[in-house]
Amino acid sequence: MKMRSLPVLLFGLLSVSNPSLAADSWGIDGEEKARIQVTVVDLLCELTGNCAENCGDGKRQLGLLQEDGTLLLPAKNNDIFAGATADLIPFCGKKIEADGLLIKKDQITMFALQFKRELPDGKWSRANWFTRDWSERNGQDAARWFENDPTIKAELERTGILGLPGVTYVPQ
Question: What pLDDT is attached to residue 76?
């Protein structure tokens, strides 16, 4: 190997082991790319002491607890119309590194999860497990899952498109 190739090789190896921020900007006012080390927690448990095993098995909103005690709401993942619970539930009570967008607007701070890995040396994965899991459960492509989801269809049948039983939407 030529000595000139060594710096390129070293740079490549370092990039793989410690990738730069991978988050994509979404053009949201107050967003900044961030990589944070946090513990995945059950929000209801943290705030009220009402705790369930395994963070409620995916039926509760999860939070990201920083070492300084700051509790962040992971409001979104990379899937359309989906939260981050499917991506975070396997890490209940564990420390992870989360890569995404820290969004600060007025009195609200939230985190849009785009990539995650278990610490100290887990493999990075994209935050899109909701559609992966939905596709496995429903046996179909999840690209527009919200148009084909049986739960959503049943709720629309029950409440109508406006979510108000008995009120009919009339397009103008």
Answer: 85
